[in-house]
Each structure stands twice: as C-alpha cells, then as structure tokens.
Amino acid sequence: MIPSWLRSRPPDAAVEIAADRVSAAVIGERHAAPVVAAHATVPLPPGVVTPVLAGENIADPDAVANAIDEVFGRLPARPKRVALVIPDAAARVSIVPFEHEPGRRDDLDRLIRWQARKSVPFPVDDALVSYAAGRRVDGGREYLVSVARRETVRAYEAVCERASAYPGLVDVSTVCLLELFLSAPVPDGDWLLVHVRGDATTIVILRGTDVIYLRTQGGDDDSGLADLVHRTAMYYQDRLAGSGFVRVLVGGSGRGGGTLDDARRSVEDRLGLAVEPIDPTRFAAVADRISVTPALMDVLAPLVGVSLRGLRAEQAA
Q: Distance (Å, rounded) from C-alpha 37 to C-alpha 11?
C-alpha cells in the first residue's frame, strides 16, 4: 500500500503538473488488461512552476491552467475527475519507524503527525499527512509517510479545477512510479529505483515490496548524481544490511543539461551493474497509433502508475 492524500473512484484521466510541462493520459482496459488509450503534453515556460516544500510552487496559475486546458483539448473527451501527480520536491516522503506499533488508529495518526512535524519547516497543522504500513522490523513497524503543505496541494488542485477537472487522488511523481512496479510481481531481494527529473532526483531502495530507503535531492543541491548514488550505496551497505541489488532501474528526463542516457551510464559506472529503463509499457499496453520513445516513457510512467492504483481500487471494491 502506498500513501495518498485523497482517494475516490477511478479517475477519467491522470494529469501530471511538472516543473517543465503538463501531461495527461487516459488509461482504459482492453481484453481485461490496462492500455494507454490517449495522451498529451504541453510544455511550460521556465519559472511558471518551481517545486519546493515550503513556499509558492505555481508562480503563474493562468499559464498552468491554460496548459491543462490545452492538454485536455487534445484528449478524446475532456475529463471531469482526474488523478493528479505533483513534483517530488513539493512534498516530503520519508520512512518513519516505530519500535511498538500503536494498536489504535487514532493513536497511530497522532504519533505519525507528531513525527512528521520534525521533518518539515512549517507547522504540521498546516500540512496534509498520509501514510502506509511498511515492513516489520524487530517487533515494530515502519511507515512510508508523505507530508505536504495543504496550501501547496491546494494550489495544484486549483489550476485543474479552473479547467473543470477535479482531483480525486493526489500524489507525488516517484510514489506513482512505485505504484507502477508494485502492480506486478516484484523480484526477491533488494532493488534500486532512480528517478531523475530537472528539478529533483529521487532514489528508492526496496526489499521485495517494502520501501526501506527513500531520498529526494532537490535542484538546489550541487552534488551530482554519481555522488548521490555513491552515498546511497554506502548507506545501504552500512545501515540496511545490503547484500547487493538484484535489479537497478533508472528513468526520468535527465538533469542539469545531462540526458537520461548520461544518468544511466553514471549509475552503471558507480554501481558496476546493468541498468534497466523505467518502461511503463511493460504494465500497460499502448494504442497502436502511439509511438513509444524514451521521452514518452518518462511522461507516461507516473501517469500509468497512478492510474493502475485507481483500477486496482475499483477491482477491490
């Protein structure tokens, strides 16, 4: 289970507001299997969206709302209910351990919010907090916790609503990627996911289906990807009893003028392991008329991930 701030019935489409673009995809079913039926992307000028944890994210709501409206106009039908994907840097996602798991939900809510206040530079009363149970450790349990300013999430929702679309589910980009991979059987052992975007890089380590490490490095951090991967690998070996990765995946759009191929080579050189691309078409087919490129895989990956969550929720209902 992955945390999300809002949950409702499956959306008509998934929308991502990123630092450099607005994208949307319609995920349907064909022969009881998910399929990308349509997609569209509109670029955003620099500075229109600047993802930050504390502070204004959307400097020009008109430009973003107009881009969303244009994206919706390119889909077969204008969606009314959407799943909304926002940038990693707009929230804080972390692993919170408890030596003794509270027995009551109210107690757990209170303790998680108490822990969350230590990790963000704003009052937790002004935050949206969501969480999901993770692995058991020494009789306790870890939780994957997402925290964002209520005002920040509301700003992203508001530009969708100006295009007459209403978010029923909101989550950050890399968490949606996790949904993508957790929609199918995962490898035994430890695996590494590296998501490289222009505004942030997020690294996740999973042990089977459990997230055991997650860190987002924002665009204001001058250390390079190789250094981030190296520090992550050292922490993995020293603190997480790491015995080696059985799988390494790298996706995104690249960062700091570098391409995704540059990022992939950097990770391979640092770890000495073969790297796989993050390929959403392994989990959802695409309509015959859609040509799949590396750039399109970056666009579709979080959109397919969040849509598959909605489909699973519908099937479980």
A: 14
> 102-131: per-residue pLDDT in tens?
889 999 999 999 999 998 999 999 999 999
For residue range 123-144, what is the model confidence (pLDDT) as tens digits? Answer: 999 999 999 999 998 889 999 9
Return the structure tokens found at 217: 């490095």
User: To which H or E segment does residue 216 belong?
Assistant: strand 210-218
DSSP output for 74-143: TSSS--SEEEEEE-GGGSEEEEEEESS--SSHHHHHHHHHHHHTTTSSS-GGGEEEEEEEEEEETTEEEE
Which residues have a Cβ under 8 Å from the Cβ of 158 and sit 6 or more positions away? 61
The C-alpha angle with vertex 269 and arms to 248 and 198, in degrees rounded to 5, equals 70
**256 phi/psi in degrees, rounded to 5:** 60, 35
**Domains of the chain in sequence order:** 13-91+147-312 (3.30.420.40), 92-146 (3.30.1490)
Question: What number of CA atoms fall less than 13 Å from residue 268's CA on the CB side?
Answer: 11
258/86 Cα distance (integer angstroms): 22
Its pTM stands at 0.93
| Residues, the chain | 317
- Determine contact, residues 280/179, Cβ cutoff 8 Å: no
